């Protein structure tokens, strides 16, 4: 039976991007289905009844949800080719810790583009702090795990597609604040899996501007 | 070289309980060190500089942080004959999904800390809805993974330590609407690893009462 791999997705979602990258790293053919989040498909509601959110991976009819759970699933299922998690348990724990750190801090980025004035300044400071912590963990390595592109890189790189919008919104330069991190991001962007999976930053910016208008109108 | 396993902990923490249960399930000898969270030890600050929180597992000098990362590390390092996570990738993804769900959605603290009766009722209702979802996932199985005590059970059972305190302080019986979970909790408590790792319910009550009073005084 041919393997059926479907990804329910929404193009600006960094969480969706993680899964797209992982599938492409493994060379898995998949059917990418774009969701309209204001009108969620019956398939999405059936496959992720708990959170009703994208991304959702549907593999031979069985759903997997939550982006980091999905990336680990992809790594374990299509194991042979380019492992994303290291083999050593301690290094694996370290990778999981840092991906979890990224998830804990995601809302800070959101606050940067959504807020204004003093609140935005404060959010920006916190956000830069987090990027600096990540930059510290990266150090002088090519990727977070060392020489090879892996789990933490997959978890973080999608947010690079949002950098331009955040910079425009809060008037700062991430490259100035975290040059090593931006160099790492550009290195990742040279990988086909990443370049194909991240949307154009200007497209993201326009999307976020529209979303902001909508949210402020409410 | 003898193995050195230290756990930096705080006895009422459900996150610390997860690590203790996992270590005991695997029969690992460990040095349990109680932290005073108002006066964190240099060791804690050094081994978890990012979050400065317990639990921290220190294995031969190398720290692992974040309770679910710790549990997975323990599972991968010790006792391969009694795994906490299933071997099938889809079942593993399912286990990870539900542990993530409870961390995202369950907040018993919000019930206790609620500033108004209305907020308290709302917090209770939200928690009950989430517990019902977990009960739906458990179904008629002995444990979340089936016949064997595993990852999701380890992740969830610590909330049972707050059962008495919540009922007495907030008139909130967490298992009242979930009879299958109540039975599951009883079943888990029969395991030595769990019984040893969950504190005395009256001690938990005293602790939560003191904290609530502290909050009110502020």
UniProtKB/TrEMBL annotation, chain A:
- The organism's superkingdom is given as Eukaryota
Q: Where in the cell is it found?
A: Cytoplasm, Cytosol
Gene responsible for this protein:
LOC115729614
Instruction: Using the record's annotation, list all stretches that form the GST N-terminal domain.
Output: 3-82
Q: Which reaction does it catalyse?
A: RX + glutathione = an S-substituted glutathione + a halide anion + H(+)
Q: Where mainly found?
A: cytoplasm
As for family, the record states: Belongs to the GST superfamily. Tau family.
UniProt KW keywords? Detoxification, Transferase
Kindly list the organism's lineage: Eukaryota, Viridiplantae, Streptophyta, Embryophyta, Tracheophyta
Q: Which organism is it from?
A: Rhodamnia argentea
User: What protein is this chain from?
Assistant: glutathione transferase
Return the EC number.
Answer: 2.5.1.18
From TrEMBL, chain B:
Leading EC class: transferase
Q: Where in the cell is it found?
A: Cytoplasm, Cytosol
Nucleus among keywords: no
**Cited CDD domains:** GST_C_Tau (cd03185), GST_N_Tau (cd03058)
Superkingdom per UniProt: Eukaryota
Pfam families membership: GST_C (PF00043), GST_N (PF02798)
Q: Which UniProt keywords apply?
A: Cytoplasm, Detoxification, Transferase
EC number per UniProt: 2.5.1.18
Q: In the UniProt record, does the keyword Transferase occur?
A: yes
- Please tell me where this protein is predominantly located: cytoplasm
Entry's Gene Ontology molecular function annotations: glutathione transferase activity
Per its UniProt record, what Gene3D superfamilies does this chain match?
1.20.1050.10, Glutaredoxin
What's a GO biological-process term for it? glutathione metabolic process
- Similarity comment: Belongs to the GST superfamily. Tau family.
Stated name of the protein: glutathione transferase
Say which species the protein is native to: Rhodamnia argentea
């Amino acid at each position: 039976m041919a393997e059926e791999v479907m990804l329910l997705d929404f193009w600006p979602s960094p969480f969706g991007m993680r899964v797209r990258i992982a599938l492409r790293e493994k060379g898995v053919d998949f059917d990418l289905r774009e969701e309209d989040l204001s009108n969620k498909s019956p398939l999405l509601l059936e496959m992720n009844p708990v959170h009703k959110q994208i991304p959702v991976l549907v593999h031979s009819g069985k759903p997997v949800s939550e982006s980091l759970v999905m990336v680990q699933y992809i790594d374990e299922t299509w194991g042979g080719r380019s492992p994303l998690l290291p083999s050593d348990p301690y290094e694996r724990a370290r990778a999981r810790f840092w991906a979890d750190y990224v998830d804990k801090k995601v809302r800070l980025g959101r606050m940067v583009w959504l807020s204004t004035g003093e609140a935005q300044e404060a959010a920006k400071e916190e956000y830069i702090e987090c990027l600096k912590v990540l930059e510290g963990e990266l150090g002088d390595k090519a990727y977070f795990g060392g020489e090879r592109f892996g789990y933490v890189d997959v978890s973080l790189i999608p947010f690079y597609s949002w950098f331009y919008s955040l910079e425009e919104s809060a008037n700062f330069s991430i490259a100035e604040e975290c040059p090593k991190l931006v160099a790492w991001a550009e290195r990742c962007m040279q990988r086909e899996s990443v370049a194909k999976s991240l949307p154009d930053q200007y497209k993201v910016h326009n999307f976020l501007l529209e979303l902001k208008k909508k949210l402020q109108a409410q | 070289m003898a193995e050195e396993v230290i756990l930096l902990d705080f006895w009422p923490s459900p996150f610390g309980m997860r690590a203790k249960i996992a270590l005991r399930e695997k029969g690992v000898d460990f040095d349990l060190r109680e932290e005073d969270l108002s006066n964190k030890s240099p060791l804690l600050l050094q081994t978890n500089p990012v979050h400065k929180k317990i639990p921290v597992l220190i294995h031969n000098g190398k720290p692992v942080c974040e309770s679910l990362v710790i549990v997975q590390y323990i599972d991968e390092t010790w006792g391969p004959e009694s795994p906490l996570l299933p071997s099938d990738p889809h079942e593993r993804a399912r286990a990870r999904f539900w542990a993530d769900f409870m961390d995202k959605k369950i907040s018993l603290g919000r019930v206790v800390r609620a500033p108004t009766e209305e907020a308290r009722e709302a917090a209770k209702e939200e928690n009950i809805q989430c517990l019902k979802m977990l009960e739906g996932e458990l179904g008629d199985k002995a444990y979340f993974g089936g016949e064997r005590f595993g990852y999701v059970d380890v992740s969830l059972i610590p909330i049972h330590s707050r059962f008495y305190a919540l009922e007495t302080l907030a008139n909130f019986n967490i298992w009242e609407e979930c009879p299958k979970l109540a039975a599951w909790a009883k079943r888990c408590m029969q395991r030595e690893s769990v019984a040893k790792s969950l504190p005395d319910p009256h001690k938990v009550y005293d602790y939560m009462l003191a904290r609530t009073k502290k909050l009110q005084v502020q």
